[in-house]
Each structure stands twice: as C-alpha cells, then as structure tokens.
Amino acid sequence: MEPKHPSSKRYPPELKERAVRMVLDLRREDPGDHTVIGRVARQLGVGPESLRGWVKQVEIDSGGKPGTTTADARRIAELEREVRDLRRANEILKAASVFFATELDGRPKR
User: Fold this and answer.
1) Looking at the domain that runs over 1-67, which CATH code has it been given?
2) Which of 12, 69, 88, 102 sits at a 20 to 30 Å CA gap from 4?
C-alpha cells in the first residue's frame, strides 16, 4: 500500500527509526531537555515536525501515550473502505430490485 503522507515517501524507514531512537535515548539521558527533537532533526536533515510526529506515534504505539495506534488506524481505514463498498453494493442491489420489481409487475410502463 502506498503511504499517504509526503514525509512517508521522503524519508526511508531506517532513517525514521534511527531518528526516533536517538530522540528517545536523549530524552532518557536528560528528561528536562526540550530541544532534543530540534537538534536531532538538524543533525539528520529531517523536518522537526515530521520527527515530532514519528516520536509521538511510536509513543502511542508502545502504550506510552493515549491515541490511535498505527495498527488501529490501519484497521479503521480497512473497515471504512469495506463500509463504502458495502454501501455501494447495497445501492446497486436496491436499484436492481426496483428494476426487476417494475419488470415483473406487469403494468405498462409510462
């Protein structure tokens, strides 16, 4: 499946994992340092907001922060797609049943 976010295409997964790992390690060393994301982003040449999002998602996925996990988001997207397909199929079936009901009714068409 093709990623939807531009940063997903711009940065390889290995770089993302390394950047997140660096941020989490540095935060463990000095929890009061609020400049970690900016420094790591500059060192690795990534956008600070992208890095902030990656770190947040890793924290959510690991249960450290509340939010929708990556697996849940993927499952929700699949279910929404399935609902759309089922609604489309229902509309087709309704239209077909109306068509066949008028065909079998025997009344002349207007």
Assistant:
1) 1.10.10.10
2) 88
